[in-house]
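To illustrate the input format used throughout this study, we show a single complete record. The first block contains the structure-token representation of the backbone; no residue identities are included at this stage. The design step must infer an amino acid for every position from geometry alone.
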């Protein structure tokens, strides 16, 4: 008699993305570093405005520059913690993906989330529900002519660096590379996905985007775990931010 083959698995388990690096306490250290970076940037920002009193375009340029500084600071927090754990960039997730499929799922899922959220807000508005708090998004202030001797192209380039280049790397390093990873090594996987996703949504400090960005953060956490690489979520983040930035530039140019 032949032995019966085992029943096929409908869902293959997903392996942990990379080697264990963090301890649970590292997530807390990372959050403290993020808050400290934000407070430091706000102090420097207010001091700069008080000292130089820039015009509208100057304020936007300073804001973009300090946004880059803020992102760089909390990304540096992750690298400092990684140094304490003797972790390399590959250990953090900057390695060749096991598969690239999650990239397409993350991008399509992100846009489906934003589209569905927009439909929901529109439906609630039609039903007479006050949705003022949940309309709009994190806009880029490029709708005014540059002044104060600042060329408009320079302002656009500065925001482009902040939104398209720095943000995807810094935010993925922090929210997926540190926060999700450290929680995933201490908590059940679903809890790490949810908490890191909600933290990503709350990070943007805008009630209008907390819900959809939280869902996108959860989707990115899954994509990171499924692919085993931060490059997948960095690429997804880059695509979404770049397309949004291009749309903003086109609308301003009209």
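Output of the design step:
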């Amino acid at each position: 008699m032949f032995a019966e083959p085992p029943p096929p698995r409908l869902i293959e388990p997903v392996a942990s993305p990379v080697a264990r690096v963090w301890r649970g306490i590292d997530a807390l250290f990372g959050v403290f570093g993020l808050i400290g970076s934000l407070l430091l940037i706000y102090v420097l920002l207010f001091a700069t405005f008080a000292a130089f009193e820039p015009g509208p375009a100057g304020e936007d340029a300073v804001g973009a520059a300090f946004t880059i500084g803020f992102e760089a600071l909390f990304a540096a927090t992750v690298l400092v913690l990684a140094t304490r754990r003797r972790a390399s960039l590959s250990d953090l997730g900057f390695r060749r993906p096991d598969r690239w499929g999650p990239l397409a799922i993350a991008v399509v899922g992100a846009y489906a989330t934003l589209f569905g959220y927009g439909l929901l807000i529109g439906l609630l508005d039609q039903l007479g529900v006050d949705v003022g708090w949940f309309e709009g998004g994190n806009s880029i202030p490029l709708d005014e002519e540059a002044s104060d001797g600042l060329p408009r192209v320079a302002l656009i380039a500065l925001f482009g660096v902040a939104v398209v280049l720095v943000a995807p790397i810094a935010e993925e390093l922090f929210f997926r590379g540190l926060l999700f990873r450290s929680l995933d090594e201490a908590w059940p996987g679903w809890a790490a996905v949810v908490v890191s996703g909600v933290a990503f949504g709350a990070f943007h400090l805008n009630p209008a985007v907390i819900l959809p960005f939280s869902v996108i953060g959860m989707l990115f956490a899954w994509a990171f775990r499924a692919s085993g690489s931060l490059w997948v979520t960095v690429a997804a983040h880059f695509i979404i931010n770049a397309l949004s930035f291009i749309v903003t530039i086109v609308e301003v140019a009209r």
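Structural context for interpreting the output: The first helix runs from residue 24 to 52. Residues 121 and 131 are 7 Å apart (CA to CA).
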